[in-house]
Specification:
single chain; 167 residues; mainly beta; five-stranded mixed β-sheet; flat; 16 strands
Length: 167
């Protein structure tokens, strides 16, 4: 009998603006045994909660086997909003051995942060780029096999996609 992978939560977060309730949290769940139920500390349910004011929000995620993970998020008052792009990135090959190509849905111009996060949310690879691109090649080294979250962010957009690295 094999056990499922550890239940993990990845979030996409948009902070609110002063005097407004425009914050948003979107959860991406991996591991455990689907299906997942999400209960929020403000009484809402589901993977997405909108119209959030500044404050702390706790999600309790339960999988089909009754395993739970609890995570708290802070919506802050910001001066700019990052638009989370829900269109998946075209990424190939995936799975890969640490080198992959990413096609962006649109050309990004200016400063851009590219980071790879471990399943535990730790940044394991990061780079800052300052040029106009619609495609990039990411080359990593010495990463353990597993699932990672690729995050590409400029001043107004956040793109995210799962990446699987194997030996």
């Amino acid at each position: 009998i094999t056990e499922p992978n550890e239940l993990q939560i990845f979030e996409e977060q948009t902070n609110t603006q002063a005097g407004q309730s425009v914050g948003r949290l979107v959860l991406n769940i991996s591991g455990g045994t689907p299906t997942y139920a999400v209960q929020w500390s403000n009484g809402e349910t589901g993977f997405v909660i909108d119209e959030l004011g500044a404050g702390f929000y706790t999600a309790t995620v339960t999988d089909a086997n009754g395993c739970e993970v609890v995570k708290t998020f802070e919506i802050q008052i910001g001066t700019a909003t990052t638009q989370v792009i829900n269109t998946p990135l075209e990424l190939y090959p995936n799975p890969n051995q640490g080198t992959f190509t990413v096609n962006l849905p649109e050309t990004i111009q200016g400063d851009m942060k590219v980071s790879l996060l471990s399943i535990a949310g730790q940044e394991v690879h990061m780079g800052i780029h300052n040029h106009s691109i619609s495609q990039m090649t990411v080359i990593t080294s010495n990463l353990a096999p597993g699932m990672y979250m690729l995050s590409i962010q400029d001043d107004s957009h956040l793109y995210q996609s799962k990446v699987i690295i194997h030996q």
